[in-house]
Model the fold of this input.
Amino acid sequence: MLKRQTSGPVSCPSCSKIVAVEVKTCPHCGRRNPGMWGYRRSLQQLGNDFGIIPIITWGCIALYIAALAIAPEEIGLGGGGQGLNSLLGFLSPSNQSLFILGSTGSIPIFQFGRWWTVLSSSWLHGSLLHILFNLLWIRHLAPSVAKFYGGSRLTILYVVAGITGALLTSLAATGLVSLPPILQGASFSVGASGGVFGLFGAMVSYGQTTKDSEIRKIGLIYAAIGFAYGLLVPRVDNWGHFGGFIGGYLVTKLPGFNPHKKEGNTHLLAAIALLLASFLSVIASVVHTYLFLSR
Done:
């Protein structure tokens, strides 16, 4: 729990030198508000990721359970397919439940005008294995990316990658309808995989910027495995994956994401704003559904 500190020493998040929590500017490196409004020590105790990993984990789990609870009689058990397809559909919420909570895609965005679902969809999942795979990837990759860029910038690039993945797959679904199904976009899409592929892209970008060929290679290998999986397994949102990778890569090329420089308070405020917007996007989806059905 965040506890505000009003006096005493803290370490400056940019230079790690000890300063008084109430000083306006660090006398050692010049960072503004090194005490972070009195919450520096509490945020430091959360670790390099500033607590974003448990927020993503428990947020996705809570919404997955909520999607199952909305229409328990329509939960899919994966019995309609064979082998992996059957497993991938095990304990899948209904499409209606996911729509209520904010699934994205060409239909929600372009037919219903639910543009905010580019934020909410990353917190929703279509089956038990779907959420397990994505959360395992996040817990595996996010600590390293937080170490590279910092917790606030991790949050920003993860959310932005989810947005770019949702936008690209929605646009592809409207303009690439003549392609084979595996190369088309998604009419409906959910999942944190856009953000996961954004972490792949961030690793590649970090390796390029720091000349660390090992990190760059690992990011490319992970991405190649993910893209290959998407081309081999039906119903995988390949455009969402590609959009997430591009989003994560490009956002880390911005000047404010230089890994040689510490993140600042602006990054923290932007991260909080994006998390708040994500939460509100789910609320907006529920309210919009209620208003639409009550017409």
